[in-house]
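In the previous chapter we treated chains in isolation. Here, by contrast, the input contains four separate entities that must be folded as one system, with a combined length of 476 residues.
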Amino acid sequence: MRPTSWLTAIDGAAERPRAAPGIESPLREIVTAELRQAILAGRYKPGQRLVEDRLAADFGVSRNPVREALRSLAAEGLVALTARRGATVAAPSAADAREMIEVRATLEGLNARHAARRRDPQVIALLSEVLSQGTAAAAAGALDALPDLNARFHDALAAAGSNRVLGDLMRSLRLRTSTVFAPLGAWRARETWEEHAAILKAVIAGDEALSALLAERHVMRAGDDFLRAESGATAADS
Amino acid sequence: MRPTSWLTAIDGAAERPRAAPGIESPLREIVTAELRQAILAGRYKPGQRLVEDRLAADFGVSRNPVREALRSLAAEGLVALTARRGATVAAPSAADAREMIEVRATLEGLNARHAARRRDPQVIALLSEVLSQGTAAAAAGALDALPDLNARFHDALAAAGSNRVLGDLMRSLRLRTSTVFAPLGAWRARETWEEHAAILKAVIAGDEALSALLAERHVMRAGDDFLRAESGATAADS
DNA sequence: ATCGGGCAATCTGTATACAATCCAGAGCCG
DNA sequence: CGGCTCTGGATTGTATACAGATTGCCCGAT
């Protein structure tokens, strides 16, 4: 969406396109966004150290914006800060993941209940639109587009619930678990969008209980898949 | 608990008791803790501007630790940051408060369910201890001790649920709403601790559904009181 | 050969300095 | 007399500099 191009183009790094759009001045936010994107895209692996000087050089800025970006991302749970040892990409344990998934499932359920109660036509139109795109992408195997579409669907669902606090928490938990889910995301694409369709249908019907149940189960199911895969894969740990 | 004394004693501010305990070095954390305390204690009123230079001078440190403290507190939701306009003490609207209360109620319910399922004897002993102290304080009208006791009870309950993610979210929401609840906190003291007792009893009995219901209602009831008071008080708004 | 001590490089924590921006109020013009 | 512009002060955003701490390595002693 936003260029991100200057990032790889700096190298020499003398002047930044301060006038690029003119809308997003503060370096701290640019760095935060880019770094978050890089982590979510897997360009920084979980557990990897994030050295301030190094990042500052990479982004062509001083250490201050980088520090603040790291604190923001730490608050979001994407990076872990250890006193006097710096920042690392968060590497949630299986237990952490389970906790986040359960909380997120509960919150998605609550939100879906609200969405069903409100049935805002505008947001439902948006949801339908995203749903059809997502279903098509899943059917076509367009793996690159799926994460973004998934995010858009859940954001729209949050909008339908119209509780901003709730929406923020859900997004935060979704981001924090996304690195963990990444390997499986592509696998369950079709089921994911079938579940999305069922949730939306229940919301449109105004069935609060069913909406809540389906949304909760939707998250839990993805979580179960992860945990099952995990328990097989981490047998060799520690 | 911690001294905080040097804070008012610096003035000239040349050397800080770096060796005070030796346990809590980073200035950023000290400032964060002190500032949070000050906000929660009402020494900074909602909506009030928090100028970095001013705070830096007050704490006898440079602006950097102050900035980072402000970002941390912003992530916690206690201060609001406006781009290029600085930080202000968060002043949640009635609608914001309602949203936070509802989410918190749901999460407390989920947590209480877990606590009832686990029935960890050690944590239950702690809860009983805090409960008796709180009940006594409420009966004696020891208003000063009540906020801390309330926090300790809910923290212990979170520990009983043993979901750290959940506990962190609950604490965050509790803090964010505490400034809003402050006026009423003292009023409902006795009922609050009766409700605490009922929740604990249900947890000890292992009644998951009842624990969840009571915990959820406990939060909702306090919220209702606030909203009722608010709707009468804010009639003149915008 | 292994263990312990010390040293150097690396990195974070903090302070200070400078640039850019915003807001208020005074003064000017219509 | 009202509205507009322009300027000065105040405040945030960013960069650079320095100090303290931690890590890992190398070397020497046993």
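Chain B touches chain A at residues 25-26, 64, 67-68, 71-72, 75-76, 83-84, 96, 99-100, 102-103, 106-107, 110, 163-166, 169, 173 (CB under 8 Å). Chain B has ten helices and three strands. Compare these points with the single-chain example from earlier in the chapter.
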